[in-house]
Amino acid sequence: QVQLVESGGGLVQPGGSLRLSCAASESSAFFSFSALAWYRQAPGKQRELVATIATGGRTNYVDSVKGRFTIARDNAKNSVYLQMNSLKPEDTAVYYCNADRIRYGGEWFSNLWGQGTQVTVSS
Fold it and tell me: What percent of the chain has pLDDT over 90?
């Protein structure tokens, strides 16, 4: 009934930038109660936590992306974003958003995942 949908992935050259977006499939769903996160998974590797943002706005990043990636949220749009700058080939992966909890239709939905969006960094 409610899903997360990622967008913004694609092919970019090393040093380039991409902005990933994630939003609820239903406009009446609410992100405001949820911690939000971006994960990524490269071929043959386990899914890796990249960035988190708490309900109060506190952010955390994996060391490999610090200074290059920025996570942000917009509760009014029920969206979370990942701005990725100075991209490296090592950033190539499928990127997934995650919501700890969403309120929709009078119910709570926990630990929701998007389908993923492909990011490829290559010359």
Answer: 79
The secondary element (H helix, E strand) that includes residue 109 is strand 107-113
Round to whole Å and give the CA distance between 117 and 28: 23
Pairing of strands 69-74, 79-84: antiparallel
CB 56 within 8 A of CB 69: no
Largest CA distance in the chain: 48
pLDDT of residue 28: 81
Each residue's pLDDT tens digit, 27-45:
888 888 899 999 999 999 9
Residue by residue, DSSP assigns 6-25 as EE--EEE-TT--EEEEEEES
C-alpha–C-alpha distance, residues 34 and 68, integer Å: 24
Euclidean distance between CA atoms 123 and 97, whole angstroms: 26
Structure confidence by residue, pLDDT tens digits, 72-110: 999 888 899 999 999 999 999 999 999 998 888 899 999
Distance in Å from the first CA to the final CA of the chain: 40
